[in-house]
Write a structure and sequence with these properties.
Largest sheet: 6 strands, antiparallel
Number of helices: 8
Radius of gyration: 19 Å
Organism: Actinospica durhamensis
InterPro entries: EccE_dom (IPR050051), T7SS_EccE (IPR021368)
GO cellular component, one term: plasma membrane
Keywords: Cell membrane, Membrane, Transmembrane, Transmembrane helix
Strand content: 15-25%
Structural class: alpha+beta
Number of strands: 6
Oligomer: single chain
Main location: membrane
């Protein structure tokens, strides 16, 4: 996560930025105590039981990731805070009165801005036909835009019966409003070529931001 003014970031942008300089994957787990009442009660009940049940679920997810051949690290609280800052593409600011007096964010109908980066979020309202090969190709294409960063959030939740509810949000972070517009056009074109449909979350950019950070859901 580099400031857009840094030499490395500017050099990367100058060569086209068609391949992500870095890819990071977070798997966030969210527990609904009411739907997991049995697991919570089996571990003592109350908030302590919920925390223990959540930790058990997180450990299982980490084990499954490692079983698939990847490395997985369960984040501590400071590491989670750092991950949220990275996901939002915001810069660390030292605590002082002058920094506190300056507003760092702005939200309009089409974008959310913070620390000199412009963000806009899309909802994948029509997924393409996924298969073992095409799903990887689709997410690789939409995740390699000419922008500062692209965040792709895939949310899975228990649906009705044995079904799984799926939703996907894609957020672009750009160095200027013009670059944001251009990157958005590239994203829409690539999604269309894959047979997918996107809806930009005009008027809901802040909720769109929240939907694309590792908090375990919308």
């Amino acid at each position: 996560h580099l400031p857009r003014q840094s030499l490395s970031a500017r050099s990367y942008q100058s060569i086209g930025a068609t391949v992500p300089a870095q890819r990071t994957t977070w798997a966030a787990v969210r527990l609904d105590p009411e739907r997991a009442e049995g697991a919570v009660q089996a571990r003592g009940g109350g908030s302590i039981g919920a925390q223990r049940a959540l930790l058990t679920a997180v450990q299982r997810v980490a084990s499954q990731i490692e079983g698939a051949g990847f490395e997985a690290t369960i984040l501590s609280e400071p590491e989670l805070i750092s991950a949220l800052g990275t996901a939002c593409h915001v810069m660390q600011v030292a605590a002082n009165t002058s920094a506190a007096a300056n507003r760092r964010t702005e939200e309009t109908r089409r974008y959310w801005r913070c620390d000199g980066s412009w963000h806009t979020t899309y909802w994948l309202d029509k997924p393409p036909t996924f298969s073992d090969r095409t799903s990887a190709d689709f997410f690789a294409n939409v995740g390699s835009l000419p922008a500062l960063a692209t965040s792709v959030a895939v949310n899975l939740a228990k649906g009705t019966g044995d079904s799984v509810a799926f939703s996907c949000f894609i957020r672009i972070a750009a160095g200027s409003e013009q670059q944001l517009t251009e990157s958005g056009k590239v994203l829409e074109q690539r999604a269309g070529q894959a047979g997918a449909g996107l809806t930009r979350l005009d008027g809901e950019q802040l909720p769109g931001l929240v939907a694309t950070v590792p908090l375990g859901g919308e």
